[in-house]
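It would be a great kindness if you could assist me with a short task in structural biology. The matter concerns a single protein, recorded as an amino acid sequence and a row of backbone structure tokens. Kindly check, if you would, that the fold set down in the tokens agrees with what the sequence suggests. Thank you for your consideration; the sequence and its tokens are set out here:
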Amino acid sequence: MFLYYKRVYRKGKDKGDCESHMGEPFLFDKPLKEGIIQKRNSRFTMDVMLNGEIVACHCPTTGRIGDIELKQVACLISENDNPKRKLRHTVEAISCDNLECEHKNWIGINQILSNKLVGFFLDTHQLNEIVQDYSCIKRETKLGVSKLDFLVGNTYIEVKTALTTLEVKYGSHIRTHPVTPFSSTERFVKHINELAGSLENHERVILLTVQQYEVTNPKQRQRSTHYQEVKATIERAVKKGVESWNLTMNFTPTGVMLHTCENTTRKIYQD
């Protein structure tokens, strides 16, 4: 059993006010194996040095991962024995720590896992600071023309995984490259508008950003080419009552634990 402390920032309190909790971890079926990324071949594959051999691995996120060059970067690998899969291995996490670091800060990059983690932490009532007094959790719930991730009681929750900016310290071996602002925001804006519109019939709506790692070097997150449009959309939604929350996690080879849960609604106006 893992033990951890979850810092909870209560709405209406200063950021320094928090409570500590011990909670149940999300455990992987099998421990992940550590390897070293040699290169990213495409949006979908990476070459990884695993047990002295180069192995082609699936990359679970097609977008970019921060501003780092994915060469000689530590990673955690899952293995799937399904014969129908094209690639047997998947890169589940990376670390920007030096390769020889014994206790690495792992950064989960599997965006599908974010939804599983949120679902698990809801099932085990570890997100009671966000939503309380519920007995039913619905997944992939239709709202207007969109499908949102969760409906918990009368609260819609839309999950986003933050990977365009990595808020961690970089080891001396990490190489970075200039990044251009991303432009794919249409789906995000649509979901925000759907969330805001739902307030007419539902008590609350939550935009939940997930970072599958511990933040060790806070940074301003990468902005899109449509930043002003996105910011204006979010501000209108917040005025209607949409809330913004952020989760960070402790990712290990055996499982994932909730680390912090913060109400970031007020920060929207500070960006």
